[in-house]
C-alpha cells in the first residue's frame, strides 16, 4: 500500500451501489469525509456558542476568533455591502479548512485534492456571484467587460479578452486549491516511501524532510482555505461595487 | 559610553536583526504563494481560451483556425489577469 504515492487519492465505494439512470451516486470515501468535516464544523460551533461565558473556554475562543477573522476579511475586501454574504463565505472557508485539515490525519482522505470537488465549489461561487451582479446592477453588470477609455476599433477584441479573463476565474480558483493539496500530499507520501526503502541506515534524512513537510502542509492547508475565501470576497466585491 | 553598555546594545540590535530575517522568511512563503497564484491565473486563462476555441471550431467546422486565434486571445487574457492581480497586491 505504501509503495504507490497516488494510492491515497483513490475513491472507492462504501456500502451498496446506488444508480439512477446510469449515474453512479453511491456513497464513497469522499462523501464520508465531506460528511465528517461538516459534522465536525457543526460540533465545534455548537459547542463554541452554547455557553456564552465572559471568559471564553478554548472551543468558544476558536468560534469567536474565526468569526471575527472572517468578519474582518469581508469588511476589508468587500466593504459593508459584503456583510449579508457572511454566512456563505464563513461556511465556505470552514468547509475547505476542515477538509484540508482532516486530510492531514494519517489514513484519512483529502477531499480537496480532487479537482472535481474544488471545481464544483468554484463553479458554484462563480454562478452565484454572476447572479448577484445581475440582480444588483441589471444589464449594467455587462459594463464589467467594457473598460472605460478604449478606442472603438479595439472594443470587440477587448470584450472577448475580458470575457475569457472572467471565465477563467473558477478555473484558476479550483486549480490552485487542488494542485496545492495534491502536490503536498504526494510529496509527503513519496518521502514517507523513502524512509521505508532506505531503512534504519539512510532513512533519517527523508524522515526529517517528512516532519518539515508535515508542518508546511498544515500551513498550506490553512493558507489555501484563506486564499479561497478571500478570492470569493474579491469576486463578490467586483459584483457588488461595480467600478471599472 | 562604557563598553559593557555598548555590548548589550549590540546584542539587542543583533537580536532585532535576526528577528527581521525571520519575518523575511515568513514573507518568502507568502511571496511563493503569490507567484503560484499568478501562474495559475495565467494558465487558467490560456486553458479557457483554448477550450472556447475548440468548442467554436466544432460548432462552425473551421477546424484549425478558431482554436489558434482563441489560444492567443487566451494568452492575452492571461497577461491581463496577471496584471490585475499584481495591481491588487500592490494596493494591499
Report on the structure:
Chain A is mainly alpha-helical. Helix content of chain A is 68%, strand content 2%. A two-stranded antiparallel ribbon of chain A has the order 1-2. In chain A, a hairpin with a 2-residue loop joins strand 1 and strand 2. The longest helix of chain A is centred in the last third of the chain and has 48 residues, at 155-202. Chain B has 2 helices and no strands. Chain B is rod-shaped and about 85 Å long. Chain B has one domain (3-91). The chains are: A mainly alpha (244), B mainly alpha (92).
Task: Give a quick summary of the entry.
With 244 residues, chain A is mostly helical.
Q: Give the strand order, joined by hyphens, for the main sheet of chain A.
A: 1-2
Estimate what percentage of residues of chain A fall within beta strands. under 5%
The shape of chain A, in one word, is: globular
Low-confidence stretches of chain A: none
Q: Average pLDDT across residues of chain A?
A: 87
Question: Which stretches of chain B of 5+ consecutive residues score pLDDT under 50?
Answer: none
Mean pLDDT of chain B: 81
Shape of chain B: rod-shaped
Radius of gyration of chain A using CA atoms only: 22 Å
Number of strands of chain B: 0
Work out the largest interface and the residue count of each chain: A-B, 19 and 23 residues
User: What is the terminal-to-terminal distance of chain B?
Assistant: 43 Å
- Residues in helices of chain A, as a percent range: 55-70%
- The DSSP helix count of chain B reads 2
Structural class of chain B: mainly alpha
**Element pattern of chain A in H and E:** EEHHHHHH
Percentage of residues assigned to helices of chain B: over 70%
Distance between the termini of chain A: 54 Å
The main pleated sheet of chain B reads as: none
| Tally of separate domains of chain A | 1
